[in-house]
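> forwarded from #structure-qc
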């Protein structure tokens, strides 16, 4: 087979990006999983103006600082953790238009564009702000909204290896959006760590067939040391944030949630405190952890000796892989979620109502929301556990009669674990207080909860088992 693909510099590869182009950008988690050389070159391309960017979140702040983007379509317009980035300020001012699209649905919109499907009906976000100005239809008693396909002019993606036929392969849980973006884009540019001869990638190892790839760019590894240092700093910040002066700390909340899980369950963990639940799951627990970036069957954070950067969870944190695990892309991950294959989802929360309504993607301090994949994950799961602090830093109540923030999903929460208590949501407006954090009184919890709590007949104080005892108690 003769070579079909041109190998270019990053600058040459994006030189024909034009004013008003739609660009999709792959990447999820670590900086190594983003086409950073292509993004850097794009920020230096004078003709790349007024672009529409399709990405999980804003992919490269210099593009905003240079005022090159007029619209962002994605799951994160901003972050709960990082504020005042240039893109967020422009969304706040109205300079940058933001179209929130749940993570699984913007993936599905790309897949539809790749397959020549103009639009489709989705149940995700049908009763939320995502449904605004969209056609609605009720099918078999369930509400759906019309989502339109995305067909970008250019796709910037990342891979481990590419051959001169354009075939790409990747490692671990790094596939995420790259395959579907390659298929959807009119021109796909792949930034790869290594370019190999045709035939050097076994057919069964090809993750993106060359038919979808137009240009190859060899990644500049000289910047990786700095990127690795930034990732280590992110992990240190999370470790520092783990302690708190009163009530349960983040690890104790995660441990208590882990003890609710049962052998044989498939469990998705959302961002924030829920990611820590995996640290209390062992290989013999029978619980399989799922993450929407594309991994099933992962376990605790690795030691320094176990660390492999290409295995990570939905927050980009490194994880270990347990026997029987599998890796795939985000399209497959969300098919599992929306298709009803998950048994439990554990998410963070900003507010929960007495009816089990969840709000966890927007708060007043945010310029734009960060819904991620939560709306997809809430769509068809029998048990949804929320882990959160009982009140805000300012002391405002987070368990309310009615949520005041925009909803992630209505009537979906079944259990709440906070730094003060474990509460069951009965679904008829009743909240049952089942357990108290050590040293916390019923009165203290009730004062910080808007709805009146019912007391379980066996209400008791929480105890905490050692890691090796958790699976037995589950």
């Amino acid at each position: 087979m003769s070579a079909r693909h041109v190998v270019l510099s990053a600058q040459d590869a994006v030189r024909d990006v034009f004013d008003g182009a739609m660009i999709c950008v792959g990447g999820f988690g670590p900086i190594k999983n983003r086409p950073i050389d292509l993004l850097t070159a794009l920020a230096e391309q004078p003709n790349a103006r007024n672009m529409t960017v399709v990405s999980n979140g804003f992919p490269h702040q210099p593009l905003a600082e240079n005022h090159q983007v007029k619209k962002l379509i994605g799951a994160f317009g901003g972050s709960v953790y990082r504020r005042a980035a240039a893109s967020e300020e422009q969304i706040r001012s109205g300079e940058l238009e933001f179209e929130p699209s749940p993570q699984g649905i913007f993936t599905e919109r790309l897949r539809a564009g790749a397959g020549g499907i103009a639009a489709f009906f989705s149940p995700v976000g049908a009763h939320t702000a995502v449904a605004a100005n969209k056609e609605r239809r009720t099918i078999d008693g369930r509400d759906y909204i019309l989502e339109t396909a995305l067909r970008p002019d250019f796709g910037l993606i990342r891979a481990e290896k590419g051959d001169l036929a354009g075939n790409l392969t990747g490692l671990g849980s790094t596939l995420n959006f790259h395959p579907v973006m390659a298929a959807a884009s009119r021109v796909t540019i792949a930034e790869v760590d290594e370019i190999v001869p045709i035939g050097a990638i076994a057919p069964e190892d090809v993750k993106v067939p060359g038919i979808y790839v137009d240009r190859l760019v060899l990644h500049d590894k000289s910047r990786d040391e700095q990127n690795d240092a930034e990732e280590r700093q992110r992990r240190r910040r999370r470790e520092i944030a783990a302690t708190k002066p009163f009530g349960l700390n983040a690890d104790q909340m995660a441990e208590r949630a882990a003890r609710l899980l049962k052998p044989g369950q498939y469990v998705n963990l959302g961002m924030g405190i829920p990611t820590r639940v995996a640290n209390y799951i062992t290989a013999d627990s029978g619980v399989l952890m799922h993450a929407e970036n594309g991994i099933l069957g992962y376990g605790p954070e690795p030691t320094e000796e176990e660390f492999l950067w290409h295995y990570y969870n939905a927050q980009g944190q490194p994880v270990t892989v347990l026997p029987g695990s599998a890796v795939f892309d985000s399209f497959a991950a969300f098919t599992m979620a929306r298709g009803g294959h998950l048994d439990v989802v554990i998410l963070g929360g900003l507010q929960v109502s007495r009816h089990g309504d969840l709000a966890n993607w927007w708060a007043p301090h945010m310029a734009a929301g960060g819904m991620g994949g939560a709306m997809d994950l809430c769509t068809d799961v029998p048990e949804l556990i929320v882990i959160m602090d009982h009140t805000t830093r300012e002391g405002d109540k987070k368990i309310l009669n009615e949520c005041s923030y925009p909803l992630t999903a209505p009537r979906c929460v079944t259990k709440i674990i906070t730094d003060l208590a474990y509460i069951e949501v009965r679904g008829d407006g009743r909240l049952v207080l089942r357990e108290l954090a050590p040293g916390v009184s019923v009165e203290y919890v009730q004062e910080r909860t808007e709805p009146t709590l019912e007391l379980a007949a066996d209400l008791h104080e929480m105890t905490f088992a050692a890691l090796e005892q958790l699976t037995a108690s589950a």
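QC bot note: Residues 242-473 form a domain with the Glutaconate Coenzyme A-transferase fold (CATH 3.40.1080.10). Confidence is low (pLDDT under 50) at residues 466-474.
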